[in-house]
Specification:
Elements: H1 2-16, H2 22-34, H3 36-65, H4 71-112, H5 115-126, H6 128-135, H7 137-171
Helix pairs in contact: 1-2, 1-4, 2-4, 2-5, 3-4
């Protein structure tokens, strides 16, 4: 894969900038290799975006148009279709992203960075501190999202429900029944009489 990446960078950089040095071409190829996972994740996100939108639409349709006794089976069938789509399209798009990286990302790196800057960028990417920080990404995001949901839930939930009701009304669908007041959790104390 690395040799293929270098060959792609050489062709692109050679076509765009005849004065690009071999050192710069190798530096760009190294960055593309180091960033391959991010490139693949970008491609995967692109694949998942329409699937997530369809899943949201299907979720609404399940609640409003599918009999309660059939919902689980329909949901499983939809999940299977979504997985088949991701399994089929995901590898194709990731592979294409890797092929396009030299002519897109590589070209921009060549145009906007000097050899010295590319060396500095590689040092940053390979830095143990950067790797540690990147590994924390999921934990950092989870901590923020968990607290954000906790602190905005009371304000956002009623607005989401109002939006849902408005959309249902615009679509001429039957009104979504209001959820009963939430039951106290197992650890919550019963109100005193």
């Amino acid at each position: 894969m690395k040799k293929w990446c270098i060959a792609g960078v050489i062709m692109v950089c050679g076509a765009v900038h005849a004065q690009t040095s071999n050192t710069k071409i190798e530096l760009i190829a190294k960055i593309l290799t180091l960033q391959q996972q991010a490139i693949e994740q970008t491609a995967q996100s692109l694949v998942e975006r329409p699937a997530l939108q369809m899943m949201q639409q299907a979720s609404l349709a399940l609640q409003n148009r599918v009999a309660p006794e059939n919902r689980e089976a329909v949901a499983k069938a939809i999940q299977a279709d979504l997985k088949a789509y991701a399994d089929d399209v995901g590898p194709l798009v990731r592979q294409k992203a890797i092929k396009l990286a030299p002519s897109t990302v590589g070209t921009l790196l060549d145009q906007r960075f000097s050899e010295d800057e590319l060396k500095q960028l590689i040092a940053i990417i390979e830095s143990p501190v950067n790797r540690k920080y990147q590994q924390m990404g999921g934990d950092l995001q989870k901590a923020l999202v968990d607290q954000l949901v906790t602190e905005t839930k009371d304000v956002v939930e009623p607005k989401v429900k109002a939006l849902e009701q408005a959309m249902v009304k615009h679509l001429g669908l039957p009104a979504v029944p209001a959820e009963p007041a939430s039951k106290p959790t197992a650890g919550a104390k019963a109100p005193k009489k």
